[in-house]
Every structure is written in structure tokens, then in C-alpha cells.
Batch of 2 targets.
Target 1
Amino acid sequence: MIPPMNRRFLLVRRPLGIPVPDDFALVETAMPVLPPGGLIVRNHYASLDPAQRGWMDDAPSYMPPIPLGDAVRAATLGVVHASDNPAFAPGDWVRGAHALEDYSAVPAGSFTRSIDIDAVDRPTLYLSALGGNAMTAYFGLLDIAKPQPGETLLVTGAAGGVGSIVGQIAKIVGCRTIGIAGGAEKCDRLLRDFGFDAAIDYKGKAVAELAEEIRKVAPRGLDMLFENVGGTVMDAALLNLAQGARVVLCGLISEYNAPERIGIRNLWQVLVQRATIHGMIVADYIPRFAEATDDIRRWLAEGKLHVEEDVQDGLETAYPAFMRLFSGANRGKQILRIA
Amino acid sequence: MIPPMNRRFLLVRRPLGIPVPDDFALVETAMPVLPPGGLIVRNHYASLDPAQRGWMDDAPSYMPPIPLGDAVRAATLGVVHASDNPAFAPGDWVRGAHALEDYSAVPAGSFTRSIDIDAVDRPTLYLSALGGNAMTAYFGLLDIAKPQPGETLLVTGAAGGVGSIVGQIAKIVGCRTIGIAGGAEKCDRLLRDFGFDAAIDYKGKAVAELAEEIRKVAPRGLDMLFENVGGTVMDAALLNLAQGARVVLCGLISEYNAPERIGIRNLWQVLVQRATIHGMIVADYIPRFAEATDDIRRWLAEGKLHVEEDVQDGLETAYPAFMRLFSGANRGKQILRIA
């Protein structure tokens, strides 16, 4: 029997601005060696997230950069192929911070955890409705923004994997929701599929125009801003903060590929409105993921939560699939099927 | 007897960027009429503060803009000249949000309060150690940043009316303090007069260089940032935040005279460090000023708090005295003696 080979999607050069195909290489290598006390996982699905772009830079961040020549780090779902850990048996489904590759060597002590594949319609729910993006939405909104019934929330990047869930949870807890997204089709989906009360298309609009559109639908200001985008979109939102507004700073996708940090111009509004900005990293909430999972399963069962997945097929499409996040082409949670 | 006239320092044009003399006019008018239930106050000392620059703009803020043709709003100390309010008698010393003028008409229901002039060495302490700047320092640090012993605090604008008090209170509660100010003389004063553990001169330095100087004196990062300046100084500080850092956003003096808002570029660091930025307006703490006053009086008596005043003389010097705040010429709390 010929031993299986391992296809790996490597980071071979740190992107300058927008990642280009030559920053990566799909290679075929020998199977990894089983680490002592660890696992080899056969990856089936990978989560593609804007955060991965940050890990490609050699800059201080909340995680070490992806080493050059190593496979691109990603949350994946897979099946245990070999185990030196008595808590896992070959054939078990697991989720963890693995990589874009057929097989991942998982050292002892990693975050990899078993998942109950029989409890869901399809495995990919563990990367969408029950994935890191959903955990981000849940804790960012409920734990940081602390929404009160009747309050108004603006979500930027509202049609994305995090934003679309934030908006729906906010409706469940009784808030009014405004979503900003790029293009008429996405705005239609905000209203139709994700239950937003108002949708605003940011494309082609400067800060003042966008701020005015927000003002029209939130004349008393924004009690909460769930920020996934940054740049002009965030600056327009800041001009509409209500007094005491809470801003959850979850992502800044507009600047991940920019040659220099963009930041914000309207910080002054944070001062005059006595607002707070809270930086958030979902990994801090790992010990509490079970809380969120229980609530989200119930909402899914009750039909209160609609989650879309955009599954692209095959490791060989990793680059174009990843870039869909930045062009805005993705329709729902971006996932890559590996096998 | 000739009735006294009222000299008033009026805002006659909204400044574009840096205020120029023609934005103001010193005029002599008739005495104001005593408002029903109100007071006429003979102003003796006025507080000059960067916040006044914001009130000169016709932009949404936490206070209405100063109306064109009206005297420039200012916190002043004065003596009741006439009263239609039984709580005040002529001759009483008061403090309130009045204006740069000899006599202010104070409507019923204003914030004007009696002060105990016999409890202090000199009246101006009510605009310096016991003034709004001290209240800002006290509540911004203790109520918002919540310093813990052993933590490291960076104060920008550290030699100013707020910053110099923030640094000293932080030392009183057991923190390590780093101050940023403009020029060697001010940096000497940070170390000598205000007890900072380290002082950094920001003048002529770009973000990267300034960030590196902060890193040298705070290699484990900043647990707290008390921000009075904004712009490149704040961006350099943001590059040094420790995980979970608290940023008190108290002022942005670097942009008050800028033609456009400057903002910050390194917002990304707030996200990756799970930091929080808290906008602050001291007026929100008026109901709690007595708490601060008690502590500050004790610290003054114990010799733990050193407060400097820079008293300029005469309403006719209002414009140059005000501009000292922006050139950095002021040495301590900027005060204008009116009479």
C-alpha cells in the first residue's frame, strides 16, 4: 500500500499589502510524524477568516506569526488519523487550530477538541453557527456590548460570518439593528435573511455621506457599534455615537491588506460621547464556549438563527477562496473543503 | 456715581484651525441685567483650558458651541456682585461656568457654587489643585483607569494642568509613571517637580522613534495610558500597550487647531491587546467633586501634591494667554487674572 502524501498550502513569503499567489505554495510532502502524546488529524474543512491575514505579518500580535515555509494556520474540522493520546481514537471528529493541509500533526496540549458530529445536520456547522465567528459574535455582543432591549446597534461587515450572527443575536435580545455591507445584493440579504431593521451600502461613499445615511436611520444615535471593518466605515459610524456608546472592536478588515495602518479620524467623538472602545480576541473566551454553544443550538432549533456557509472546494482553491473575504465575494461564512 | 462698565472678551468668528486675534474682540458694554433668580458675578480669575477651543467650533460636542458675539465661556472664580437668589449674598466667593468678562449674568439653575475662600492659601487653588483639571485627573485615573499598585502608567501632556496631577496621584497609589512632554525643560520638571519615574521629550520625533523610547522605559508595556494629546504621541503609546490596557481619553490637544481631525493610526493595537479606550468628560463627575476635593486637600496638606499655576494678567491678555496652551508655553495650570 502506498502511504498517503500530505498536500500543504504554505506561506512562503510575507504579503506586502494584498496577498498574491506567489506568497503561497501548494506542495506535496511526506505524512507528518505522530508527535508524542499528540495526534495526526485528517483535515476535512477549514475556516477561512480575515484574522489569518494578520498572522501572515511579522508584527506583534496576539498570536505568533505563521512561520515562513509552514502551512497557513486555520481552524479546521477533521478526523483523527492516528493518536498517541488516550482521549482520542482514530475516527473521532475533532476541531482545532490546525492548518491548510491534508494532515496536521497536533502536539500534546493543543486546543484540539472532540466534536459531536451526530448532533448537527452537517459538520461545517462547527465552523459556522458553532464556529469561532459565532463565538466572536456571541461574546462580543453579549459580554462586551451588553445590549439592552430597545437599544440601537450598528454592525459593520454585517453580511459576513461574524456580523450576520451579531445582528441576529441582537434581534433575539430585543435590539434595533442596522447593518452596513458592500453592494445592493448584500444589503437585501441583511434585511431578508438576517432580519436587520435597516441596511446601508457603503460602496462608493465618503465618510460624510455614509454618516448622514446612518443618521437617517438612527437619529438618536448608536448605543452600540460592532466594528469589523475600520477605516471610513468606522469613521462614519463614530460620527453617530450616542452618549455612553459601547464599541466592540472585533476586526479591521479594511486595513489588513493596506500598506500602512489606516486607523480612524473621528476619535474625538469617542471623547465627547463618553464612549468606550473594547478590543476583542475570541480566544480569550475559549473556556466559556460551551455557554454560547448551548444558546446557539437552541436558537438554531427554534429557527431564530440563520447561518449561511460559502464552501469552496479543494486545497488547490485555497488562495482564491481566502481572497473572497477581502473582495467581499463570500456569501456567508467562508469555508474550504479539503476532503 | 458712574456705573461700572463690563469688559467682555467675545468670540466674533469661528476659528479655522489655529485661533487668530481677529477671531475675538475685547469690547466694553453696559453692565448685565440681573436675571430672575440669578446672580451677577464679578469675575476675578478664569481657567484657560484646551476644551475652550472645542467650544469655539460649530460642531456636535458635549456642550453647545459658544454663540458668535458672546463672551468666551470659561470656568471662573468671582464674587457675587448682585443676587436674586437667597442662597447667595453679595460678597460671596463663587465658582462656575461663566465667561471671560468682568461681570457675568448667571441665570437661575446654573452650576455656580459657593467656595470657601478661607480654606485655601490663595483663591486660584480652586482653578488648579481643586479645579476642573484636578477633578479630571482624579476621576479619570481612579474611576476609569483603576490603577493597581505596581502598574505602569504613561501620561501624555504630562507637564500640563491635568497630566501633572495624574502623574502625582498615580505615584500616591503606588504606580510607576512615565510622562511625555515637549522639550527638555518640561521633562526636567516632570522628574523634579512632579515625581515621574521617567520623562520623554516628544519634540521632533516620529511615531517609531517615540515608540522605541517608550519601550525602553516600559519593556513590559503600558497598563494604563492617560491621553491628553492624540496624534503621533498617542500612536506611539498605542504601540506599547500591555494586554488589557486601559486608555483614558481625556484630551486631544494636538488636533484641536488642526484643519481636519487627525485621529490615530494604531487602533489595531487596541484590538490585539484587548485594550479599552474610555472617553471622558469631567462634567459627568460634578456630583462627586466633593470626594476628590477631600482627598486632594489632604494630599496638599501632606505635601504629596505639587501644583503649579501660570497666572497671566488682565482680560486684554486673554488671547495670548489662551494660546500659551497650544504653544506649550504655559508652566502649570493656565489661569487669567481678570481683577
Target 2
Amino acid sequence: MKATISKRGFLQAVGAAVGVGAVYRSMQALGLVSTEVAHEVWADLPRGSGEGKSVAILGAGIAGMTAAYELSKAGYRCTILEAADRAGGRNLTARAGDVVGEVDGRQRVNFSEGDHLYANLGPARIPYHHGTILGYCKEFGVGLEVFTNDNRAALFHNRERFDGRPVSARRVITDIRGYIAELLAKAVDGTSLDSALTVEDKERLLQMLVQYGDLNADHLYKGTKRGGYRDGRLNAGLKAGELDDPLDFSDLLKSDFWEYKLHFDDFLDQNPTLLQPVGGMDTIAKAFEERVGSFVRYRSVVEEIRKSPKGVRIVYRSGLGGAVGTLDADFAICSIPAPVLKDIQNDFAPETKAAIESVAFAPAIKIAFQTRRRFWEEDHAIYGGISWTDQDITQIWYPPYGYHRDNGVIVGAYVWNKDIGLRFEGMSPEERLRVAIEEGERVHPGYAGEIEAGVSRAWGKVPFQKGAWPTGKEAPAALQRPDGAIYFAGDQASALPGWQEGAALAAHAAVAAINERVMGK
Amino acid sequence: MKATISKRGFLQAVGAAVGVGAVYRSMQALGLVSTEVAHEVWADLPRGSGEGKSVAILGAGIAGMTAAYELSKAGYRCTILEAADRAGGRNLTARAGDVVGEVDGRQRVNFSEGDHLYANLGPARIPYHHGTILGYCKEFGVGLEVFTNDNRAALFHNRERFDGRPVSARRVITDIRGYIAELLAKAVDGTSLDSALTVEDKERLLQMLVQYGDLNADHLYKGTKRGGYRDGRLNAGLKAGELDDPLDFSDLLKSDFWEYKLHFDDFLDQNPTLLQPVGGMDTIAKAFEERVGSFVRYRSVVEEIRKSPKGVRIVYRSGLGGAVGTLDADFAICSIPAPVLKDIQNDFAPETKAAIESVAFAPAIKIAFQTRRRFWEEDHAIYGGISWTDQDITQIWYPPYGYHRDNGVIVGAYVWNKDIGLRFEGMSPEERLRVAIEEGERVHPGYAGEIEAGVSRAWGKVPFQKGAWPTGKEAPAALQRPDGAIYFAGDQASALPGWQEGAALAAHAAVAAINERVMGK
């Protein structure tokens, strides 16, 4: 422990002297951010530094609660205004008896009771390098388990290829690599790459390609036992079987399998190891709520955000048609999603208004089904992971928890494409389920007969959210600096749109900036 | 559930009529083995079919206990002779206070108490397609969680390359793929592959390669954010950073990273999803022992295996210098590892003796360390997975369980190379730990200071085992058929050496063959 304590001690000393922003910069300079202290929570404000100061926090999602947690520890008086009757924002786990609402209706979650019968309808995974959120998990004692993206038993499905039959990820990945290795070996064996490679590297590259693609002695790809054996046998068993024929390369090229699906887990945010809280993603939201819930005024819909001589004045209404309230504070941290924020009366500067207007949110969709048995495990040896289809449902997720239980909850559609999202958004909840079942049936014949209950979430139609995440990759500059005493947070103020890490980091940045201002006074 | 029940019902009906071997063949014919009924336990012998028959089972490992479990359910009278004082065989989990023995000494496991402080010194993972073992896990209620092979935060280390500094799997994998894609694109952009590809496929292949390797518009690989950002930043955070420079291709080619390590998780047996029992691999052995422990005579060292008019006669000694006992039975199932079996007096046919002599076992080594903190998670965001080094320790495994706890147990060496294994085998336990710490220090500077306790297991020196697994890929034919009334089991009688699945499958085969013989009488 000693090495860490001294490093952390140093950073705490810097923090006490100059504030958390300086700590963050020190850590960056030391190359520590996200690696050396991957899950240390670094926003430790000096104790008492906020005494006598008040902060109005708009939104009790991950950003708002993170800000309240850090500020209140330093003595700031925090009030969180939350429009909904629950905390967590887009961090949402559906369980038996829950009611999930959209602007024009409500769905009751008809799952059975069971600690494995839930669906994370918002964020569902935490990349290993999201050290801020992981740090809070550690600090709050939120148990973690592995979330599985890459399951070679899962399926790739394209209606136009391979007679419309799903093929295993295992076959697609090994066969494509085999062909790539064969073609490159052919080129290297010839002379066309001689100018690009030394003789020595050429020899080593050939050796590598033979292993990379499992090529034969003639540098040809004729299938590999990495893909499994003939007749659907998946392992050698008592006597090793024969290699199966590889999939046709031209068909693979004509499929959409290689369009990001093939290397999905190579994207930094989808890289293994991915983690998830045991028991549902909302375990994190609940852990925050336990600590800052007393600061939250639920069903408090913000109607005006004003600059005031003191700092900020927030006008809000308590529930539908309820009383109007006013909250004055020295500062505000606003995590209200841009599509909602843009319609709230405000005193923002023109650049701020323009920035808010510029942020579009994705109309993402998730549909979850409870099934009467875990047919994916029982019939296909699929333990967690994702199947892909070229149909609108896009993906089927098998739960990476509750293995071998009697039943389970799968994600029957996860859509982020705008056109498809809007198509589902326009349907009634019943129609969404019907379509998702019909499409799922083409991936898993018999699917319809397995399903017992379903729920959908069209984020574009969720009150006080109006979307799943900002579609841009970077936040507008105006959302990363204060407008008067008003600071912005949420994933929309980070370069990690759609990730809780972005929400928490932006909250840290806002908290640090407020504290520097206070301490500088 | 209906679809399964009827399928299973059909198979049980076949089983009742003609025995489990027929069921297995029916399942093969139906293409069901290992896929459709991936985790159904299929060795359901007809009830009562073994009444009045006795079986001597030699060895209470996974094979012996599987055989006893299935036979006893069918009415066979089973006796298991186990040389050690525990069941499980190579299925071994080390915990605080355990004593693990080798031929010339004993080590006490000095770990602290804690449900996350254990090391699986034998098998540690279960591939998703090992349906027999997974079936028993389901039947016995053994909880499962994910075992992680592929962790992109884990390290590749070669003393001769990259200044001897470990580099992340993420960088190695993305950079090698980038270069491969670039080189192949160069060849395709030229004319050298024109004869191998249609114009249409050529165009699609180029599009694929751009995605596969994340090539730029000129089809060059200049690094990818899949590998992370400059200055050790692992995610975009508040503002996306700059791409880091890729590793030098020539250095990558000169390293040993691409020698099976690069595609380790593509091997069928190492494919995700891998599973492990919650709480340690011996949970499986204990679940079997709960069911068949009453049949086991512990500390019963077999000294003679004889053919008798009744069937078999086994002579054994109860413990060291203990009394000699005799066990007569209609049949025997022998799962004693070949290196031990070959020295036991027997009446085997010459081909059987030759087969047993021919099976060599690997002198594999595992070394486990308890550490004072989880430095891999705290300092490197490594959650489970494996780092590779060209040093003798070969691998460091980070525990895929107990995330974020205060301390943990890592595997500090996992060696299967014969020469290296024998080198470690020849050392004292203290010397093994010293070497493993010294080498680990080169992968993780500060390693030595983190370690609190260690234990090693040199399987070649374990009494009644004399090795970790058969080095051949297929079992000799003579071990897959009976010699008189003596049947063979264990992984050595399967084409899955080193896997519990092979042990259980071979046990099923022996059980099925005995039952067919009995029912045929």
C-alpha cells in the first residue's frame, strides 16, 4: 500500500493547496490519469472549502449526483432539482413491477420476480479504463462482474447471405482472418511487397501469417479447427473430428459482417475487460442516491434558469400543475440534456444557447424480453455476448449474468441508427415488441414461443431526456466553460457521449472549476 | 420448456431402450452433441439397469466421480479407490491453511482467509462448448462466472524488444492488424492479387481492410484510437486526445508476440465465453463428492490390477505401510494417470501396456501469489486476463474474481513448456517463488514489494499424478476400449487432454460401454 499512499498523498497535498483541477493537471503531467490511478476517485476537494456556499444542481443523474457528492463532502450546500420521481437519469434498470414512461404512455414491466430478471435499458457496460465510475464502484462497494461483448458462439446474421442462416462469430472471425492471411502471404510470396519489407521481415511476416490465419504448408487457408469441426461438433471430444469447410470468402465480403461488427470489441470503449455491477446498472445510481438523496427534490421540473446578483435563480414547478418554487444559489451545475434544456427559459449568453441548440441526441431504442428458458445457453451454448443481424433490431444481447438459471431476460433489440430508431419510436409499445419478436425469429427459430414478457425504451420519447446520448464526439466549447455562475455537466459536456464516465468527468470538471473560483476569492 | 422436454424425452426413451451409447450416437446423428444440448447431461442410464453389478473405480478425480455418479444412479454398486486423502485429482484449489504435497515435500498455503483468496492450481477455465462439465454445473447448482483470457489492458513483454518494457495487448493487437491491413491493401491496390480476386471482391476487400485495420484515406496505417491516446490516456475523457504512434512493425515482427499469444483466444478451447465456478474450480469436485463421497475409500493406493473369473480384482494398500485390501468387482474403470498406472502390477494385454507406456504427461507448473493490494487493477486497470512474457514464468494471470477487493491472488507463473517445467520442478519451493518474483518484477516494477505469500505446484512431482496432462492430442486406441472387464477413463482416454470435459466424456463412454454389455447379457 505504501507506494500508492505516497502518490495519493502527494496528489491530495496538491489538491489541498490549489484545488482539484490542479490535481487533475498534475496527474496528467505525471501520466497517471486513467492508468496509474485508474480507479482512484481524484475529485477530493479540500474539506470545508465550500462552507457557506450553495450550489443548485439540475438533474439527479450520474453527473448531478457525482457533483453533489463531491461538493457536499467539501461543505457546499447542495440542492438537486430532479424532474422525474426517481434518481439515475438514463441509468435505468427495469425489473418486475416497474413502470417506464414515455411522453404518450406508460409500460408496466411484466417480468417475474428474480434477482437475475432485469434489463439495463440505459448504460449496460463499464470499460476497464472508465476509472472514475469504477472508482465510485470501489468506494461505494458496488460489486462488479464481467460484461461480455465478444462471444464466439454468438451469431452473425444477414438475410441475403449464407441462405439467410446465422453463422457463428467463431467461423466468421477465423475464416476472414484465414483469407486475409492467405492473400497477404500470396502477395509476400510474390514480389509485389518487396519494396515495403526487408528480406528478414518478409520471412518473419510469412511465419506470422501462417499462425495468424492458421494457413497450411502451402500458405493456403483451408479452414481451421479454431472454427470447430464438421457436423456441428464444437470440440474434439473423444476423438478429434474433421475440419469444417470455411465459409465462402466472396460471400463474407458481400455480407455486412465486416462493417464494424467483426472488430466491435476492438473499439476502445468496447474492449475487454468490460464490467457491470452485479444485480443491475442502477446499483450505481442507488449507491449515489443513498449518499445524496437527501439533497434531491424529486418531481421538480425546471422552468427558468436565471442569472442573479447572488449567482443563479432557478424557477421550478413541483410536479404537473404543482406549485412554483424558487431556488437561489451561488452556483448552478446544469446536467439537463440539451434537447430538454434548449426549451427552458434562460439567461444564457448567445454562444451558450447556440451550443445547446447544436447538440442532437440519438433516438436509441432498447427492447428487453423475459424468456421462459435460457434457450441461448441450452440450445446454442451462448453464454452472454451479442448476436448481430441486418434487420432493424440490429443486436440481440444474451444476459452475462444468471447463467444456468431457469429463465432470463435478453435484449431483443438495441438500435442506435437514427432512421431505425425513429421507426421504432413511432410504433406503439405492442408493435415494437411484435416487430422485435418477428425479426428475432429469423435469428433464433422458435424465438416467439420462448418469450413471456417484453418492454421497450425509446429514449427519444422519454420525458426530461428526449434522447439517449449526444451524437457528436466532442462537447461544444461553450458547454465546457461556465456561463456566469452556471456550469454544465453530463456526458454532453464531455468527449465520452453516452457513457457514465463522461457524465462523472464533466461533473468533476465543474466541481473543480467552482472550487477554484471559490478558493481564489 | 416444451421443445426441450420433448427432445430430451425422445433421447431418454432411446436411452432406456438401448443404453447411453445409443443415445450418444442418436445425438450425433441429430447433430445435437455439444450444440443443441450443449449442457444437457446425456449419460442417463436406465434406472435399475445396473442392479446386482459392481464396479471398482480407480481414482476419485472428475472421471472417477462422474462414472460413479452415473453408474450408481442406475443401480450399480460402486467403490472408488483414491490414493490421496481428498477427491478431485487435478481439480485443485488452494486456500488458506491447505497443505499441498509433492514427492519430496509439502507446502503450507499461507494465504489469508477470504472467499476471493484462492488459486485454481489445476484446471481454471471451462470453455462454453464443454457441455458435459457445464451440464453437471447446472445439475449440481454450481454457480458460474466469466473467466477472462482476452484483456486488452494486459501486457506483452519481451526482454529484447521495446526496450524490454511491457506493451499493452491493445496496442499489439491493433497495430499488428493495422500493418497487415495496410500491406494487403497495398497488394490489392497494385495488381499482384488481380488473378485471385474479382474486381467486385477487390473493391469490397479494400473497404473491409480500411475498417479492419483502421486505415487512413490513403490506405495507410498511422495508428488508431482503438489503441489509446498519447501520454498514456486510455479514453477521450473531457476532450479527445491525439493518436499515439503505432509500435514499430519490424520490432513487432522480431518479437514473439505473434507466436500464438496474439490469437490465443481464437483457439477453440480458449475462445470466449470461458466460464469458471464461483468460489473456485473445486466447487465442481466438491459437488461430485457430496454425491459419491460415500463410495470413496481414501488413502487407498492401488498396487495390483488383476483380471479375475468374476471380472476384476484390485489389490490396494490403505495409506503408507497400511493394511492390504482386496476389491473384487464385475468391472473396473481405471482413471489412474498413465505415468502412475504404468508402474502398477497388472494383467493388461501387451497393447494396453504399450499404450499406457506411450502416454507422456506434461510437467506443467503453476505458481500463485497473494498480494497486499490489487496493483494490477489499481495501477493498470487490468481486470482479469493474462500478461505474457518471454521469461520462464510465461504468464501472469490476474484473478477474474474479487474485483476491487483489498487484496488478491494472482498466478505468477503458468508453464507448460517441458524444459522450463523441468527447470522449475528441479527447484525447491522457495527457489521457485524467488525466480517467479524476480521475473515478475520485470513485467511489473515493484512486484516483489506487493507479494505476501506464495505456493507452487509442479505437477510432475505430485504423488499419484506425475504430470499435468497427456501431451498427445488423441488417446491411444487401447485406452478407448476395454481390456477384459477393465475400462479406461480420464482425459487420457479422450481427445481433450488436460480438460475436465475429456475426463467426464471418457467416463461417460466407459459407463455407456459397461451398461451396453450388461444390458446385452
